[in-house]
Write a structure and sequence with these properties.
Layout: E1 2-5, H1 31-39, E2 44-47, E3 52-56, E4 67-72, E5 75-83, H2 86-92, H3 101-114, H4 120-125, E6 129-137, E7 142-147, E8 156-159, E9 165-168, H5 171-178, E10 182-184, E11 189-192, E12 196-199, E13 207-213, E14 219-226
Antiparallel strand pairs: 1-3, 1-9, 2-3, 4-5, 5-6, 6-7, 7-11, 8-9, 8-10, 11-12, 13-14
Length: 250
Amino acid sequence: MLAVFDKSVGKCPEALQSPHSESVCALKDGFLAQHFSSVHPGAVTINLGSAGVVAYSIDKQNPLLPRLFAVMDDMFCLFQGHIENVAHLKQQYGLNKTANEVIIVMEAYRTLRDRGPYPADKVVRDFHGKYAFILYDSSSKAAFIAADADGSVPFFWGTDSEGHLVLSDDAETAKKGCGKSFAPFPKGCFFTTSGGLRSFEHPLNELKPVPRVDSSGQVCGATFKVDEESSRKETGMPRVGSAANWSQNY
């Protein structure tokens, strides 16, 4: 799976941007999407206009960590892996028996966006399993991205030469678009358009970047660790009306 988002949708943390990076513009002339399609024959690519692009393929997938893709009500969601407590989540969100993981993620996001009954970190923490997902809501131009607490699914992110946020389960694709400004997506974390990167395991703690150094001694992106000495003042996302965008209220 692949997603490239404009800075208005996903502002990449500055710590990911390596001063020695030789990255390109991932969106120019569909560069990275075309590369992804050449590596994964039969890939489906969706142009999101000024917001960016997403691409999906079932090529070369791990049968234990299958990929899913769905479009529903202006939401686009890429999901890889599996959720163990599917039955419980279906009941919680009032979904029918045929709903799978990608539908559950979309419904969970919709509930957050429209009603905000729980903090966002709790919603992601309730997903028990091995997974990584990328959701884009074109109605509010917002992204919702997460990876499980064990980092079970290969999942990478970074920034291209223009500051666009790049995400992929393919390390080589991420390197192609980001040069040295890429890293594994932090496990146990989620990213939103307005809230940035946060830990869903330790939602009250800040995340601090730790520089990654390659074999030549050059800094290439960063990993993010929970700062045990820090604590956020905000404890969660306030309830909002159905007409409000939850992502702008926490």
